[in-house]
């Protein structure tokens, strides 16, 4: 079965996840994380991508980003993935694949969904039981977005910038979002849309993206279309046309 083409539109934010092969580790030491982020910055810049949020977990990566070109994200991830695999194989004297096939992603509507993805990404270490607070985890964008830690290549999304008129106000408003748990329903929506390469947002947003791309961008219903089922039933009872 051919792979579904990615749902990507220039200028529309994308939530992306890439896992280690068989969910095995892809980061073994701090140097691995540091180099991955260094190369992420380089290839994002070269491919016209803006990184809004990230987290590096032991066996997977989450990114929230936007691209000026439809193919920018794919080009960035290809170059980044190849260079990082070469580094890991050389450093740890291993061979073979590191990643679990293609990365998975979903287009993300602005407003609550973008900020929800920010939180979903940066709360990963908390959900995994690695830390009690996202600020305790070194390899995520939380410290930059919420606490003002220097990160010259991280680019705030317009939804983040709209939280307040100045930098300190935005950080305070962003920290306030983390006082509350992420709604379990939203977590499920993000996971389903990302794993299925669908669109995360309202029905209207999904319809607009589907029209722009000329194809389905949400999960289809199981089974055959109703018209076909009715036609088959008619044939069975001698009433079909």
Automatic annotation (TrEMBL):
InterPro entries: Transposase_17, Transposase_17_sf. Residues 220-241 are annotated as: Disordered. GO terms for biological process: DNA transposition. Residues 9-124 form the Transposase IS200-like domain. Signal peptide: none annotated. One of its GO terms (molecular function) is transposase activity. This is Putative transposase. It comes from endosymbiont of Riftia pachyptila.
